[in-house]
Amino acid sequence: MPAGLNINFYAVMPEILVTALALIVLILDFFIRKNKAALGWVSIVGLLCILPVAAYTNEPYPVFGGTVIADSFSAFFNVIFIIAAIFSILISMDYLKKIGVDRGEYYHIILFATVGMMVMGAANDLINVYVGLELMALSFYILVAYRVTSARSVEGALKYFVLGALSSGILLYGMSFTYGAAGSTNFMEIAAELGKGDNTYLTLGIILMAAGFGFKIAAFPFHLWAPDVYEGAPTPVTALLSVGSKAAAFAAFLRVFTAAFPAFQADWSSMLWVVSAATMIFGAVVAISQKNIVRMLAYSSIAHAGIIMIGLLAFNDTGLSGVAYYLLVYAFMNMGAFTIVALFRNKGRFENIDEYRGLASTRPLLAFLMALFLLSLAGIPPTGGFAAKFFVLSAAIDAKYYWLASIGVVSTAISLFFYAKVIFYMYMRDPEPGAEIAPSSGVIYNIVLFCTAIGTVLLGVYPAPFIDMAIRAVRPLLM
Amino acid sequence: MTGLTGFPILSTITFLPALGALVIILFYKKDWADLIKWTALGTSAVTFLVSLYLPLTFDMADPGLQWVEKTVWIERFGISYYMGVDGISLLLVLLTTFMTIICVLASWREINTKLKGYMALFLLTETFSLGIFMAMDLFLFYIFWEAVLIPMVFIIGIWGGVRKFYSAIKFFIFTFVGSLFMLLGILAIYFYHGKVTGVYTFDSTILSLSPAAPAVQFWVFIAFFLGFAVKVPMFPLHTWLPDAHTDAPTAGSIVLAAVLLKLGTYAFVRFTLPMLPNASMLFAPLMIGISIFAIIYGALVTIAQKDIKKLIAYSSVSHMGFVMLGIFVFNIEGLKGSVMQMLNHGVSTGALFLLVGMIYERTHTRMIGDYTGLFKELPVYGVFFLIVVLSSMGMPTTNGFIGELFVLIGAFKAHWVYAVFVAFGVLLGAVYLLWLFQRVFLGNFHYAGGHGLKDLGLREIIETAPLIILIFWIGLYPKPFLNVMDASLTKLVAQVETNYKKGNGEAVSPRASLDAAAVERKVE
């Protein structure tokens, strides 16, 4: 139980540094008039310097009156957020030129979104979760609408804004119930209050908060925004949204439900069981009929959210570390897939899956990498996607969730169909005669693709050290 | 027992083809067709030669794993890189390395597009298949098991026939779904074993020491069954096979029949029997029933086929029924017959697909009605075809006879009714094979393209001859082959028996082998 304020700025150093970086980029924006990509480079260099600081962890100790906790868990997720942000900025620089909206504030908004995610990962208090979530969400509202010339982008942004605001409201509503019942917003104090007296309001609070988080991770039935927003947003933003925002929401989800409501595990797990199962099946089934590649990836990300939830449900160290590991792998494989989509997608071209036909003969390397990422998303060994699925499913078996694991398997099997479809188009169909040849990847894209591919393969072939990291990361949650 | 020098011979054999594939992919240009072909051939030949080290140094008296390699891979989950070969897998390893050479030769002229990717994928298929036969760690086994799908799917999907897209995705989804359930089974047995004994490990040797409770085995058996039976393929999960075979290029069909179908039956012998003895015996009547049904049904469907390749594909369903039957009668003869049949089916059906590929190259049709009386035009081809047909139907002095005989003895030992069905299946096999031969080769010559079909060339004779030699070698002098598997299979039968008792927790009088009839009584 935290006594006193215990002000410690070292504990929140990563957040402070990224904020400072964002402010620097904001100021530089006034001075750099022509080449806005320079701001991107400043952000990347800054983030790279912050990465070791963010990855460094001490013993977990709650600071600032127990509202923030800097531990191995927050450090692990900080790394995911920063890596995702770096990749996203790298592919943005070219992308923004392509869509003709090369403006400076883009970069510091991404950095602010990253700060929001980091605050969510380190929050030990409902208020902080909310503040982090809003900082992230508000940044994303702007980013999603960035293709101002595109009606789809604006439509997506509006949907995201309305539904996002609604979900924030629901989350806040749940938090207020929790506060009313427990008399505190601090996770540990809430946990200590559990089980004393009437728990009706607390239960209500838990349900509403689960709904709020469900929106952010795009779980069924709160997923409706995802396909439209993913499709409308600039592709690098979609990538960050699907990787970073999801990871942040899961980080907070995990922290809240394990730190604040462990005693209610039996209750919330039966509720989340249904949500997880429905999400897995719904996402996979609907993705089959998608023709647009981004919408397909959006539904696939819904299905993945359902599978990741299995790890939370299992509620043992394997399961929780499985969630962390899954999100790490997901950052690489999904980012990789979106990088290729971002590279190709231009002026209405390469929107649909059948436009990827014959890619293997025109761009063999890119086709190979796309196949690698898709196979990893499908969970085929020896890629990271398999290791992650293996991790989560083994946790489910360990926790005796046999049916949920079976549903996860069925969902994986269904999802193979649409991932394989893209691969088959690339490899087994000839390119349409006279069709525009897919653009080649520049140096920056190659860097991103190289890093994501290495990550995807390494996390599958040699997962041992990263698994240990993930296990160390979730240890504070189970104390 | 490890190799004398501690040299990782198994890994070398497994990853040599992958190395060749890597060289082809990274360093060769697309249009270096000859170099690509020769490199692929060289790699597969070297792999085969290195794999010959195994039978030369094999200790027949040792029933356990030999040339074992074991290193920790993911310590946290008790996963290790654990490879080993014993009498059961040795022949299958050799079959794989041997058939890959044939496959490369069979593709020599057939494949003209994207040769680079083709050869690389073929060599990768070899690596992953070898990995499956050698992996003793269930996690490692699963990795190889899934990985082998990828190159095969691409081979069917890119270089396949008319309906390649459909066949490839059907093959992919069938096998992938099955193996996912198998993964759940693996995880279940892993955690069960861990909770009961405190040792969390995927090491199949350790897992085989203490079988799970029969109730757990029941579910794990179903999960394993879904994974393995799709690959075998057992009725009713066999529907992907005819499509995949029909649309695959010749070499794809060969490797599918000779190697990939064996993965399922091998896994039944290797993992299901010792790890799930009680469930195996419980399910034995059902498995035997399905196998017998597959034998008869497969044969009947085969008779009705008009496309030669599809005919051979369906005959595989029937033949693999024999293998499955031999496994689930639980005696040494049945098992010996099974392993023998795996080898035989690989050689004979592989040879059939090879020969069909040759006639297809000449005529571009595989319809039985399109040509008759080929024997007069293509005598060498006809003789080869006849030998392979006879071997496939189990004619004495050929390999097929040995395998079917042992299965028949095993079946008879279990129950005479099984043997009756097996004999009937053999008879039906003779019907469709001889009828095929009669329709295609005998009678007056007729072919829309007229005379002038060329008989086999030197390359084609070279690639067929080893299979013919093997057919007669196994048929006339099977002793070395049977000796190789003897010790390991004897140990397996004993192990199944002791594990059965362990799993049941009751004392069962020890016997050298259990016959299925007695088993049924015990389970009841």
Describe the structure.
The complex is a heterodimer of chains A (479) and B (524). Chain A has 479 residues and is mostly helical. Chain A has a domain of 219 residues. In chain A, 75% of the residues lie in helices and 1% in strands. Chain A has 19 helices and two strands. In chain B, helix 5 packs antiparallel against helix 7 and helix 8 packs across helix 11. Chain B is globular and about 70 Å long. Chain B has 524 residues and is mainly alpha-helical. The interface between A and B is medium-sized, with 30 and 33 residues.
Tell me the major beta sheet of chain A: 2 strands, antiparallel
SS class of chain A:
mainly alpha
In round numbers, the mean pLDDT of chain A is 87
Indicate the percent of residues in helices of chain A.
over 70%
Q: What's the SSE pattern of chain A?
A: HHEEHHHHHHHHHHHHHHHHH
- Give the low-pLDDT segments of chain B: 508-524
End-to-end distance of chain A: 13 Å
> What is the terminal-to-terminal distance of chain B?
40 Å
Instruction: Indicate the low-confidence ranges of chain A by residue numbers.
Output: none
Secondary structure topology:
The complex is a heterodimer of chains A (479) and B (524).
Chain A: H1 13-31, H2 37-55, E1 61-63, E2 68-70, H3 72-99, H4 105-122, H5 126-144, H6 151-182, H7 187-193, H8 200-217, H9 225-232, H10 235-260, H11 265-288, H12 293-314, H13 317-344, H14 359-362, H15 364-378, H16 384-398, H17 402-428, H18 443-461, H19 464-474
Antiparallel strand pairs in A: 1-2
Helix pairs in contact in A: 1-2, 1-4, 2-3, 3-4, 3-10, 3-13, 3-19, 4-5, 4-10, 5-6, 5-10, 6-7, 6-8, 6-9, 8-10, 8-11, 9-10, 9-12, 10-12, 10-13, 11-12, 11-17, 12-13, 12-16, 12-17, 13-15, 13-16, 13-18, 13-19, 15-17, 15-18, 16-17, 16-18
Chain B: H1 9-27, H2 33-51, H3 53-57, E1 66-74, E2 79-85, H4 87-106, H5 115-134, H6 138-147, H7 149-159, H8 164-197, H9 204-209, H10 214-231, H11 240-247, H12 250-275, H13 277-303, H14 308-328, H15 332-363, E3 371-372, H16 374-377, H17 379-392, H18 399-414, H19 416-441, E4 446-447, H20 458-476, H21 479-504, H22 516-523
Antiparallel strand pairs in B: 1-2, 3-4
Helix pairs in contact in B: 1-2, 1-5, 2-4, 2-5, 4-5, 4-12, 4-15, 4-20, 4-21, 5-6, 5-7, 5-12, 6-8, 7-8, 8-10, 8-11, 10-12, 10-13, 11-12, 11-14, 12-14, 12-15, 13-14, 13-19, 13-22, 14-15, 14-18, 14-19, 15-17, 15-18, 15-20, 15-21, 17-19, 17-20, 18-19, 18-20
